[in-house]
Design a protein that fits this description.
- The chain is mainly alpha-helical.
- The chain is built from 5 helices and no strands.
């Protein structure tokens, strides 16, 4: 029991550090990518009409940035859920099979909700 509390404290520390880093990156991406005009984003100093290919590239980069922001926000939500589970004492339990998630997996993905076997089954569409 004492070991579990020490592990929870260690994972909580890692999750908080990861959350802080992710929130900073997501905020930075919001500020830098979404609030700039096309000229600011591309570094273009000219007011000459742009080529359609440039517009396509700019749109692709903007969509990619939006996707990265969404992924970052989803990771922050998953971290928050993991932090709640630590407080509830249910951290590290697979949501599918209710077995303990391997500590090595939690070290790699501290906000994991599934054990390796269940994650694999989910990726195959079996869960």
């Amino acid at each position: 029991m004492k070991e579990a509390k020490a592990d929870f404290a260690q994972f909580k520390k890692r999750l908080l550090a990861l959350r802080e880093r992710l929130v900073g990156k997501v905020d930075y991406m919001h500020e830098e990518a979404l609030k700039k005009s096309r000229q600011d984003a591309s570094g273009d100093l000219s007011n000459v009409p742009i080529h359609m290919a440039d517009v396509g590239t700019d749109n692709f980069e903007r969509e990619l940035m939006i996707e990265l922001i969404q992924n970052g926000e989803e990771s922050v939500r998953n971290i928050d859920i993991a932090l709640e589970k630590i407080e509830e004492g249910t951290f590290g339990v697979c949501e599918a099979c209710n077995k303990k998630i391997n500590k090595e997996r939690l070290k790699a993905v501290p906000h994991a909700t599934l054990c390796v076997d269940c994650q694999r089954e989910e990726e195959l569409g079996n869960i």
